[in-house]
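We were asked to recover a plausible sequence for a given structure. The inputs and outputs are reproduced exactly as logged, with field labels preserved.

PROBLEM: sequence recovery
POSITIONS: 366
GIVEN STRUCTURE:
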């Protein structure tokens, strides 16, 4: 493996320092909550190794909302990042071929690069509303295609893939014997009913998610892989055991107690996201310089400067950060042009969020 640090991590708010930023529009999750707010009690927890697959009661809670999915289909991982690493490093070698849809969350591109497999990128286009064309995937298949990797709702665009397409992709996977990796980390933040969980549609599909983005608790590093394919699950467990044996029992217990009563918190989380999204929609609706494809879920959008706008983007980002202490995610975090930037609308409270987008206007104007 050849590891390279990704710009999205080198330049992340936690790397440059949260105290440097007044309006944080670079985040891709809802606001983090404190341990005290969670009302969790760990007094009787024994500091032992945990169940290698993951705490059974927690896996049952995670499986519960989905049709055709059982506790045994869920493997707990260290965040969705850990899940993606386990899947990609277990399935791909330098002799295999991967098809990955861009733009995408950087790890879905960088880990396969580190493995050294052959990669075909399918670039979704702004001018086509980032719509996925399945025939493009079909045309790119090779005899050694092992994995096709998609994310829905997308990071950084917030665009979702429709259920018919997920089903069609599952059929394609079965027919051509590849696995379909669906990163569904933003699923619980869909604006409309999300499509069927990919892993519930086919045993060639693998769904990944975590509690980081929708619930504001990335500090416990708890994610999961769901697949009904038992030999795949066994392979992923082997990888997990070799990397870190099991999850932290502390993380598992906190996550379990939180998810048991998540509805107590989730309503206000969704309300805050909805309010900020309305502010963002109004702002984008009449914007002189920026255009976007409206997200259908998640907490990020990926606006761009209109083609006719002549702007020095380096100066824009510099001014926005140095002068207005406002931070967004430039396009190069996603191997895209810097005329795009990722704008997170789930993190800051409404007044600071409003100030942040006003600062974007000020930085453009100046
Ligand atoms: C699409 C997507 N997948 C996975 C992750 C990793 O999240 P975590 O490891 O915190 O669960 C992220 C984080 O930004 C993401 O946006």
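RECOVERED SEQUENCE:
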């Amino acid at each position: 493996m050849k590891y390279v640090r990704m710009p999205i991590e080198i330049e992340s708010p936690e790397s440059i320092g949260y105290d440097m930023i007044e309006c944080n529009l670079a985040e891709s999750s809802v606001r983090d909550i404190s341990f005290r707010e969670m009302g969790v009690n760990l007094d009787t927890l024994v500091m032992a190794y945990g169940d290698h697959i993951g705490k059974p009661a927690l896996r049952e809670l995670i499986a519960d909302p989905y049709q055709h999915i059982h506790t045994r289909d869920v493997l707990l991982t260290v965040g969705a990042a850990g899940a993606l690493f386990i899947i990609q490093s277990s399935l791909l070698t330098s002799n295999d071929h991967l098809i990955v849809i861009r733009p995408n969350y950087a790890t879905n591109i960088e880990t396969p690069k580190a493995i050294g497999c052959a990669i075909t990128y399918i670039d979704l286009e702004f001018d086509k509303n980032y719509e996925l064309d399945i025939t493009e995937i079909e045309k790119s298949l090779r005899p050694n295609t092992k994995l096709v990797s998609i994310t829905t709702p997308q990071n950084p665009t917030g665009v979702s893939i429709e259920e018919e397409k997920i089903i069609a992709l599952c059929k394609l996977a079965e027919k051509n014997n590849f696995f379909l990796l669906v990163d569904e980390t933003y699923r619980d933040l869909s604006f409309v009913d999300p499509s069927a969980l990919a892993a519930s549609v086919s045993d060639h599909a693998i769904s990944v998610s975590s509690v980081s983005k929708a619930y504001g608790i990335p500090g416990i590093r708890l994610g999961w892989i769901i697949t009904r394919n038992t030999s795949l699950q066994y392979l992923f467990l082997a990888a997990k055991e070799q990397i870190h044996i099991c999850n932290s029992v502390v993380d598992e217990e906190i996550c379990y107690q939180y998810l048991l009563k998540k509805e107590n918190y989730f309503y206000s989380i969704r309300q805050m996201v909805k309010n900020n999204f309305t502010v963002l929609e109004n702002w984008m609706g009449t914007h002189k310089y920026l255009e976007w494809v409206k997200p259908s879920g998640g907490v990020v959008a990926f606006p761009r400067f209109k083609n006719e706008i002549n702007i020095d983007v380096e100066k824009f980002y510099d001014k926005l950060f140095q002068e207005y202490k406002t931070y967004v995610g430039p396009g190069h975090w996603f191997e895209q042009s810097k005329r795009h930037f990722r704008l997170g609308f789930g993190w800051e409270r409404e007044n600071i969020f409003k100030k942040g987008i006003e600062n974007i206007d000020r930085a453009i104007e100046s």
